[in-house]
Amino acid sequence: MMSVKRISKQAPVFLTFAMLLHSSFAISGSAKYLTKGYIQNHNGQDCWYRQSVEKESKYFFGRLTQTVGVLTFDSPSCMAGNGFERDANKMMINNAISRWYSHSDAKFKTRVREMYKSSPLQKKGQCIQSSKYPAMGITIDYLIEKDSIKEVIHGGSVSGCTN
Question: What is the model's pTM?
């Protein structure tokens, strides 16, 4: 008689999570990061940036490595501001970056008030959550000098965002 092995009830959940995680990283990555470009600030000015890719970064997850983008503004004063201006600049940056991580239907929550504090295993920065795909998030950290956003580090989250 042939024996049949039972599949754990958790196996389908794990496989679904693994496929979503893999597909989110497969869609994103260094191929979609722009090496040069601009993002408009709260005044509508074009703020030019250069971007590099770090393939073995431990910035967000400690011992785990991942590919992250490091976006550096040519003139950090272009992204200067406090309060509303800074929030508007962050939203504009989030809008640009979120396009590199998924198809247009992901509908990432890019407003500052919509951002989450973190994601599983994340040690720095914040998290931008997809409103359509609960397991898809973007880790992001803004390096601010004086009142200006000088640099932005971003990568795919391990899973969805958490507060």
Answer: 0.79
Domain ranges of the chain: 10-156
Whole-angstrom distance, CA of residue 94 vs CA of residue 101: 11
Helix H, strand E, coil C: the string for 57-126 is ECCCCCCCCEEEEEEEECCHHHHECCCHHHHHHHHHHHHHHHCCCCCHHHCECCCHHHCECECCCCCCCE
Q: What is the dihedral of CA 31, 57, 89, 96, to 10 degrees?
A: 10
Confidence check: pLDDT of 128 > 90:
yes
Kindly state the helix (H) or strand (E) to which residue 138 belongs, with its residue range: strand 137-145
